[in-house]
Amino acid sequence: MIKRSDWAREADQWVGKFEGAGVGTGVTVLFFSSETVGAGPVLHEHPYDEVFIIRQGNARFTVGDKVIEAQVSEIVLGPANIPHKFENLGPGSLETTDIHLSDRHIQTDLE
């Protein structure tokens, strides 16, 4: 079991991460949350696949040359070595759970 205090950066939001290497598994999980429209990570890539679960809100994903608008309960796939990013479209908060198929978080920012 992984306790909230082991991964959360905020006391009242789903923001933080845990790396699989530290808990004996092959996945790393990041939790993103922001009320700010336009907030999200810069264009980047990973040497492994990533799965985005939209837990709340609306997002615009750029995955390679595709632009995808996703909403709560939808899942977006990010293949290895394909540049991607997402942003909060609003209104309100965007919360995602991002599953990295690697025991470590490895990211190359492109912007």
Model description:
It contains one helix and ten strands; from the N terminus they run αββββββββββ. The protein is globular, with a radius of gyration of 13 Å. The longest helix is centred in the first third of the chain and has 4 residues, at 4-7. It is mainly beta. It has a single domain (13-106), classed as Jelly Rolls, CATH 2.60.120. The strands form three sheets. The protein has a five-stranded antiparallel β-sheet with strand order 1-2-9-4-7, with no helix packed on it. Strands 6-5-8 form a three-stranded antiparallel β-sheet, with no helix packed on it.
* Amount of beta strand: 35-45%
CATH class value: Mainly Beta
CATH-defined fold name: Jelly Rolls
What spatial order of strands do you see in the largest sheet? 1-2-9-4-7
Q: How many strands, which pairing sense, and closed or not: the largest β-sheet?
A: 5 strands, antiparallel
Element-by-element helix/strand order: HEEEEEEEEEE
Name its key features:
111 residues, mainly beta, Jelly Rolls, 5-stranded antiparallel β-sheet, 3-stranded antiparallel β-sheet, 44% strand
Describe what is shown at a glance.
This protein is mainly beta. It has one helix at 4-7; strands at residues 16-18, 28-34, 44-45, 50-56, 58-63, 66-71, 75-78, 84-88, 94-100, 108-109.
